[in-house]
């Protein structure tokens, strides 16, 4: 499966991909750690939101789906984009 990564300045990164059945999806990972899952027909800039997860919820899903792979890809991305840090800011409760 091909995944296209699109930098969203000031927001985070959008990952676009299509399933074997032809369904198109986008996952937006925000700098805050929040994640949004969306689908679209043709234009990835006009997605339909499916659901959103806050940073804690996204962390649990990432662990279930294979966080080491996601962390590895993010580490590679931080090498490719100067100034993009992988640090995590403290959380206020």
In words, what does this structure look like?
This protein is an alpha+beta fold. It has one domain. Helices cover 27% and strands 34% of the residues. A five-stranded antiparallel beta sheet has the order 1-2-3-4-5. A hairpin with a 3-residue loop joins strand 1 (3-8) and strand 2 (12-18). It is globular and about 30 Å long. The mean pLDDT is 81. This is Potassium/proton antiporter subunit KhtT-like N-terminal domain-containing protein.
Tell me about the biggest sheet?
A: 5 strands, antiparallel
Enumerate the spans where pLDDT stays under 50 for 5 or more consecutive residues.
none
Write down the secondary-structure element order: EEEEEHH
Shape call: globular
Our count of domains comes out at 1
Domain Potassium/proton antiporter subunit KhtT-like N-terminal: 1-69
Protein name: Potassium/proton antiporter subunit KhtT-like N-terminal domain-containing protein
Pfam family, one: KhtT_N
